[in-house]
Model the fold of this input.
Amino acid sequence: MKAKDLYDIAIIGTGPAGATLARLLYPKYNIIAIDKKTPHGDGFQKPCGGLICTDAQKALASFDLTLPKDVLVDPQIFAVKTIDLKNKLIRHYQRFYINMDRHKFDLWLESLLPKTVELHSNAVCTELKRENGGFLISYQDLETKQIRTVRAKFLVGADGANSIVRRTFYPEKKLRRYLSIQQWFPETHRNPFYSCIFDPETTDCCSWSISKDHQFIFGGAFPLDHARERFERQKAKLEEIGFRFGAPLKTEACLVLRPASFRDFCKGEKGIFLIGEAAGFISASSLEGISSAIGSAKTLSGVLNHPRSNPNERYWQKTLPLRLKLFTKVLKSPFLYRSFLRKLVMKSGIQSIKITETLANPPFFAKK
Ligand SMILES: Cc1cc2nc3c(=O)[nH]c(=O)nc-3n(C[C@H](O)[C@H](O)[C@H](O)COP(=O)(O)OP(=O)(O)OC[C@H]3O[C@@H](n4cnc5c(N)ncnc54)[C@H](O)[C@@H]3O)c2cc1C
Done:
C-alpha cells in the first residue's frame, strides 16, 4: 500500500455529524472523509424535514457559526399544528425552528472543512475490514466506478441510520427502525403550515408536513411491514380533513432509528467510533437528530485531538449527558404516543396557542 493510502482517521459520512468532526479535528491528522452525496446534480440527498431546533441552533452557536441566507427556505414557522387523528384533536404549540433546505445545509457544513481533510464526495463505502491494528476501507467513486482501498488507524461511522460501520462490526445491534417516506407536492394550501400527525392505526411513530419554497412535504415514519400502504392510508385520512396533495413531484425514503432503551446506543470499540444517528443518537419522541449529530461529533473531536489512553472509553463517558438526554426522550414518548395520555395532554390545552379563526383561515378539521 502506498504511503498516500494511509490515514490516521477515516470518516464514513459527512452529514452533520461527520462534517462537524472533520472540521474540528486538528490538522496534524491525516484524514479521509467519504460521502455518497454530490455537490451538484441529482445524486443522493438525505430525506429530512429540514428543521433546525433550538438545541441544534445552540450547537451551531457554540462554534460561533451563523447560517447563510441561501440555506433558509420560505416560510419561517412559529408554531406546530399537532393533529391527533384518532381523538380528532388539533392544537397549536409554539416552536422556534429554522426552516431550511437540508441538502444545502449539508453542503454548507462540508464547505467549512479545512483543506487538510481529503474529502471524497459521490463515493460510497462498500467494505470495511479490521487489519493489523487498523482498518481497510474500500470505497467506490460513483462517477468513475473505480474502487479504491485505503488504510486508517481509526474508523469513524458517521454514516447515519443504515451505517455500514455499525452493520459490519456490530451486526447484533438491532435498533428499533422505521421506514421514513416523504413526498413533495406543489404547495396549494391557502396558509402554508407545519404539522405533526399522530395516527396509531397506521404507525406507532409520527408523521409531519411542512412547506418549503412553494412546495409541500408530507412524510412519516412507518413500521417496515407494508410501510408504503400505511403511508397512503394516512394520506387519504389527511385529505379528508383538508390536506391537499395532488400528484407528487418526488418520493423519497430512508431508514430512521428510534432508540427504545438506554442500552440501544451503539458503543464502538478498539478504534471504531460511531457518532450521530449511526450510534443511535436521535430523539425517540420527535426524531430530531441534527443536534445530537453535531454534539457527539464535537465530543469525539475533543477526545481525538487530545490523545490519551483508551479513547473509546473516554468518548463513551463523555457522551453520557447526551445519552441521558436522549433517554429522557424515550421516557417522554408515552405522553406523545399513547393515545389516552396524548388526549389528556391535548385536551388540557396546556401550553397551546389559541388560533383566531377567520374566513381566510377556517378551522382545519372542517371539510375542504
Ligand atoms: C425523513 C426524516 C426527517 C427528519 N427530519 C429532521 C428534522 O427536521 N430535524 C432534525 O434535527 N432531524 C431530522 N431527522 C433526523 C436527522 O435527519 C438525522 O438524525 C441526522 O441527519 C443525523 O445526522 P448524521 O450526520 O448522524 O447522519 P446523516 O445525516 O444520515 O448523514 C450520513 C451521511 O453518510 C453518508 N453515507 C451513508 N452511508 C454511506 C456509505 N456507505 N458511503 C458513503 N457515505 C455514506 C450519507 O450520504 C450522509 O451524508 C429526520 C430524519 C428523517 C429520516
The longest helix spans residues 320-337. Residues 12-18, 34-37, 44, 46-51, 53, 56, 124-125, 158-160, 164, 180, 182, 219, 254, 256, 276-278, 282, 287-290, 293 surround flavin-adenine dinucleotide (CB under 6 Å). The radius of gyration is 21 Å. The first strand starts at residue 6 and ends at 12.
